[in-house]
Structures are given as C-alpha cells and as structure tokens.
Amino acid sequence: MIPAHELRKYDIFFGLEPKELAALAKIADVVHASEGETIINEGQPARTFYLMDQGNLLVAFKDGRALTLHGRGEVVGWSAIIHPTHYTGDVICLTDCFFISFPGSEMLRLIQSNVAMGTKIMRLVSERVANRIPFLAEAVTRRLKGGS
After folding, report:
1. Which of these, 4, 80, 117, 141, could form a disulfide with 25 (CB 3.0-4.6 Å)?
2. Cα–Cα nearest to 45, from 74, 91, 79
3. Which CATH number fits domain 4-144: 3.40.50.300, 2.60.120.10, 3.90.1150.10, 3.40.50.12780?
4. Phi, psi for residue 70 in degrees, rounded to 5
5. What is the mean pLDDT of residues 4-21?
6. Which of 74, 76, 79, 60 shows the shortest CA–CA distance to 136?
7. Ramachandran sector of residue 58 (left: φ over 0; alpha: ψ -120 to 50; beta: rest)
8. What's the predicted TM-score (pTM) here?
9. Do 94 and 57 form a contact (C-beta atoms < 8 A)?
10. Considering the chain, what is the average pLDDT of its residues?
C-alpha cells in the first residue's frame, strides 16, 4: 500500500476523487526492477498493471517492433485490465526502474465496481496507449512495404 496522495502525481489518475485514490492506494505497491530485468514476458497471463515512476523501458514484440518508454507516468501491463488478458510484448528495464504496481484482478474489480472511476481510468489508459499507436502503425507499414 502507498499513500493516496502519492497517486496524485500521475496524470493517469487525474480527476479521481480522494476516496477513489484511497481505494487504488490500498492495492498499490512500489516495485523496483534492476537494469536488464524483464518485468513482462510476452504470452504470459497478464496479472500486473505497472505505472512507471522512474526509469527507461524497452517494449519489444515478436514481429520486430519495439519502442522505448521514459519516466514518470508511462504504463505497461494494461492487458491486466483490458482484453486479451495476456501480455503482448516483452518489457525490459533499460535502467533501474521504480513502478507503482497494481494486481490486475484487484484493479479490474475496482474499475467494474465504480463506473465513474473505471471510466476515468480506462479513458486515461486508452489515451496513453493511443499515443503509441502511430509509431507502431508506422513500423508495421514499413515492414509490409519491405522496408526495415
């Protein structure tokens, strides 16, 4: 558990009420991962949602696509709360990293039990993911055209 006021630092929780932040804080944990450590393995059941506090990550996919994520507020492991419920890429720490982690089943329970809170969180997670889509779509287009 972490203090609820700590969650206010992350824009993914923008607009949540104090009681909603308190509910999330109860299931949150601080996690440290070392440089070179793989925190998510593609194909494994998605059990944890991670919110990065510090560090740099590499997200790599079997088809050769990859992207890096840097610093506070990035999210990985959203498959723990969104279908397909298995991780779709590998996530490797490029530096020592600190995360706020949430058990996917508990976070999903909170989202489903409080529609207003769930809508806010899912909207903000979707915005984060959508920011990555142009890069990923461009990589797929290049591959289909025979480029590198």
Report:
1. 4
2. 79
3. 2.60.120.10
4. -130, 120
5. 90
6. 60
7. beta
8. 0.85
9. yes
10. 88
